[in-house]
Amino acid sequence: MSLPAHLKSRHLPLGDQRTGRFYGQDILSVSQFTRDDLEYIFGVADAMRNMVAHIGTFDLLKGKILANLFYEPSTRTSSSFLAAMERLGGSVIPISEVRYSSVSKGESLPDTVRTLECYADVIVLRHPETGAAAIAAQAARKPVINAGDGIGEHPTQALLDLYTIRQELGRIDGLTVTMLGDLKYGRTVHSLSKLLSLYDVNVHYVSPDLLKMPADLVAQLNEHGLRQTEHATLEGVLPESDVLYVTRIQKERFADLNEYEGVKGAYVITPETMRSAKPRMALMHPLPRVGEISGEVDHDPRAAYFRQMECGLYVRMAVLAMVLGKA
Ligand code: NCD
Fold this sequence. Notes:
Elements: H1 35-55, E1 65-70, H2 76-87, E2 91-95, H3 109-119, E3 122-127, H4 132-139, E4 144-149, H5 155-169, E5 176-180, H6 187-196, E6 202-206, H7 215-223, E7 227-231, E8 243-246, H8 257-263, H9 271-274, E9 282-284, H10 305-323
Parallel strand pairs: 1-2, 1-3, 3-4, 5-6, 5-8, 6-7, 8-9
The protein binds N-carbamoyl-L-aspartate.
N-carbamoyl-L-aspartate binds at residues 76-77, 148, 154, 157, 187-188, 248, 286-287.
């Protein structure tokens, strides 16, 4: 039987003096974070940003190896974890073409993970099934970081999203955050809304009826005291939003592609839309966008999605340093 995730650090070499928050821990869900943890992570991310700006690459994780195991497509998440590890002086085993690995021979996820941890110190996993990261973490002695498990969670994305909100607007408490698009299948909004429930915020959900936030998640967040309202159109809530978090309709999650055809292109943010937004709003998107934000909006100072992407590097550097006991 494998150990509970929080006991993993006891299996690190005897005499290992490293300690610290999240040392040896899995990062599976944002539910494991307190506000205090988030402030700590953001402080480390700030330090990483500073170090990258001043010296670029440094040796904090020299000799450490990350296995980057991606069973689903990724540009930003995989490359930012890779860049994060290399900026910290470590190295990476990239497995993004699982069809060329033993997975294509039918190897199970637990066996693949047990293999990789023989060679690596930490495993980053993206997988199409909800709960896959937890299954991998059960099998592994080394820390597993969930980089997206189906429609479940994407904890490091939510960390970088919140870090971006804090950077763009200087605070989190007191804000009104509107999430738009595919709230049913979008794992980033599932994780972000959970993190926001730790703060004093108002959240508006805007989606087609078919793609509403899962009712059980809304109920759970309600119990945590998060103020949430649901809408079919953006117009009514846009003028009061401090953050507009736009998402892609997750085509690959639809069982019936006719349903996708019915909702694709439901919302498109244009310069015209931005005219009704607050002068200091942060327009965010986890990316990739497939038409939800018109390219003409990119030069609007409120368009924060490229800065948001950059934040991903610093937050992932912080997370890696923490789970490896170096922050
Ligand atoms: C998101 C994801 O994979 O959930 N992408 C990302 O990690 N930045 C969002 C998406 O694919 O729509």
